[in-house]
Design a protein that fits this description.
Number of strands: 3
Order of helices and strands: HEHHHEEHH
Strand content: 5-15%
Oligomer: single chain
Helix content: over 70%
Number of domains: 1
Number of helices: 6
Radius of gyration: 19 Å
């Protein structure tokens, strides 16, 4: 395979990923303004935020894109990274499911949204891991060495955590939404 073609393909994938992240960021920023106004109207404490299901799935999408762009070369270079990614993803899904249970506060039917406790764990984690990965790459760490494989596993643990959390929150939201629809008039959950 032509190495220049592979480099061009990798660059194209990277550019597409960054463009998608930018579009998502702009959407997210506009939604945050609306959320803050509604949160103020509802009198939410500073430790809580309101989110729709669509907004909740933005975090995993961005994290998957960042992880994909950062780890693309590692994933195609050796099976050890793929195995580490699968293991990290599986463990992360379990952690995320539990975190989703802990963050969910209540359903807000008038805004078709949910109230969550504020955490930024997955964002801080992915930024930290990307920085570690870049430092290791620039320091010349062995691409298939144990340290790089562990970094891949932990990055995918973060991916799984974000997906698991969003999956649980979506499930819980849908349950509360269905219960609100079937509840007799005048009865509140």
């Amino acid at each position: 395979m032509n190495p220049q073609m592979l480099t061009g393909t990798e660059q194209m994938i990277s550019n597409i990923g960054y463009a998608i992240v930018f579009v998502i960021f702009v959407f997210y920023a506009t939604q945050m303004r609306k959320q803050r106004a509604i949160a103020k109207e509802l009198g939410l404490p500073k430790t809580q935020r309101m989110r729709t299901v669509v907004q909740q799935w933005i975090d995993p999408l961005v994290i998957v894109l960042v992880a994909g762009v950062i780890l693309y070369q590692d994933l195609v270079s050796g099976s050890s990274h793929v195995i580490a990614a699968v293991v990290g993803l599986a463990v992360g899904l379990g952690f995320g499911w539990v975190r989703g249970r802990l963050e969910y506060v209540r359903y807000v039917p008038e805004h078709h949204a949910m109230i969550l406790k504020i955490t930024i764990i997955e964002v801080v984690m992915i930024i930290s891991l990307v920085v570690i990965k870049v430092i290791l790459d620039s320091a010349g760490a062995e691409p298939n060495g144990i340290l790089m494989v562990v970094v891949s596993a932990v990055i995918f643990l973060d991916v799984g955590d974000s997906i698991g959390k969003s999956a649980h929150l979506t499930r819980r939201f849908r349950q509360d939404e269905a219960a609100a629809v079937t509840a007799p008039a005048g009865e509140t959950g």
